[in-house]
Automatic annotation (TrEMBL):
Principal subcellular localisation of the protein: membrane
GO cellular component: plasma membrane
Protein's name in the database: D-allose transport system permease protein AlsC
GO MF, one annotated term: transmembrane transporter activity
Topology versus the membrane: Multi-pass membrane protein
Transmembrane portions of the chain: 12-33, 53-75, 110-128, 140-160, 200-219, 247-268, 274-291, 298-315, 327-346
Cellular location(s): Cell membrane
Length: 368
């Protein structure tokens, strides 16, 4: 039986955790000789105070939506998939191979094909740890961590070898013009809305569709019910005829596919070529996004926007003040710490408070 109301679990606790993280961050900023209120104002203004800030915030959020959904759907099956980094890198490889394979005449043809390519490569990379977990009992955390490093090494090997473009940089040639995705500036200009030039592109709409698709899968489809039932109780799921091998494999395939879709935004949407380091830690941020979003697609979307704002606001803070980049990383780490590892520090007292409130006798009603 749930001790906290749903609204408190998904709204109040994350809000308190975020407030605590910001308070501690403010104390750290003040210790290095900066005004914490001014620093917060710069971050907020830099992240959401202009179309330029919003463009970068939502661009980063798009990456985090894909990796956050990947972690969230695995959480529902009690699978701790922390291999989003490697799965996103392999998904980026799949996107790049699709874009380079054909002289695409228009992005409307290239985008669906790249989605399939990124999803297939990401799913294939997640399938191996999934199989090892289901058939051999190998712990999913260990195998997914190892596969992150293998994916990185494989990408380096290809970019300094078979896929390397002429020149010194370890990268592919640029994708054909027909594979270039329209930016938010170009899309909004059609309806007369001015918008700054930023990396934000149509991949953001793909991320929103992915959120809706995950919600539909988990709460409106039989497979989603089986995934959640398996996560709540494996023995009960076995008794109901749900195959652990099938659910583990399908969940990891879907999780890897979602992480692989990040390549649409990072590689096809912004870089327009495959670089050596194109994920930039988004796979690990997805873990915090899923935790803060309570593994619900709407929560993942909101948490992804928050972390996107932290990334963009942090960049503006570093540019306008003497606060080092490492301080921005500390702020992000504190948010992750309070929303993840220290979640129980807030949850426990709140549960006791709600329990006392419920058991408090009403006026005129004798206590039991």
């Amino acid at each position: 039986m749930q001790k906290l109301p749903k609204w408190a679990d998904v709204g109040l606790i994350p809000a308190i955790n975020l407030a605590l993280a910001l308070i501690v961050s403010g104390l750290v900023v003040s210790l290095i000789g900066q005004d914490p209120f001014e620093a917060l104002a710069i971050m907020v203004r830099g992240a959401v105070g202009s179309t330029y800030g919003w463009g970068y915030t939502l661009y980063y959020a798009t990456n985090f939506v894909f990796t956050g959904l990947a972690v969230a759907i695995a959480f529902h099956a009690k699978l701790f998939n922390i291999g989003g980094e490697g799965q996103a890198q392999l998904g980026s490889l799949g996107v790049a191979l699709v874009c380079l394979a054909v002289p695409w005449p228009h992005w409307t043809l290239a985008l669906p094909s790249a989605i399939v390519g990124g999803a297939l490569f990401g799913a294939a990379w997640a399938a191996i740890p999934g199989y090892l977990q289901a058939k051999r009992g190998s712990h999913i955390v260990i195998t997914t961590i190892m596969f992150n490093f293998i994916a990185s090494a494989l990408l380096v090997y290809l970019l300094v070898g078979a896929l390397k473009a002429p020149g010194m940089a370890p990268e592919t040639v640029r994708f054909p013009e027909g594979a270039r995705l329209p930016s938010a500036q170009e899309i909004l200009a059609v309806v007369g809305i001015p918008f700054s030039r930023t990396p934000l592109n149509i991949s953001f709409l793909v991320a929103l569709i992915a959120c809706w698709g995950v919600w539909l899968l988990l709460w409106r489809m039989r497979l989603g019910y089986e995934i959640r039932a398996f996560g709540h109780s494996e023995p009960a799921a076995r008794y109901a005829g749900i195959s652990p091998l099938r659910i583990t494999m399908l969940t990891m395939l879907i999780s890897g596919a979602l992480a692989g879709l990040m390549g649409i935004n990072a590689v096809m949407g912004e870089q327009e070529r495959l670089l050596q380091d194109n994920v930039l830690g988004a796979g690990f941020v997805g873990i915090a996004v899923a935790l803060m979003g309570r593994s619900h697609p709407v929560g993942v979307l909101l948490a992804a926007i928050l972390f996107g704002a932290l990334y963009q606001g942090g960049a503006e803070l570093e540019f306008e003040t003497s606060v080092p980049r490492e301080m921005v990383v500390v702020i992000q780490a504190l948010v992750i710490l309070f929303t993840g590892a220290l979640d129980g520090m807030v949850r426990g007292p709140l549960e006791k408070s709600f329990l006392r409130f419920r058991n408090k006798p009403k006026p005129g009603v004798p206590a039991e």
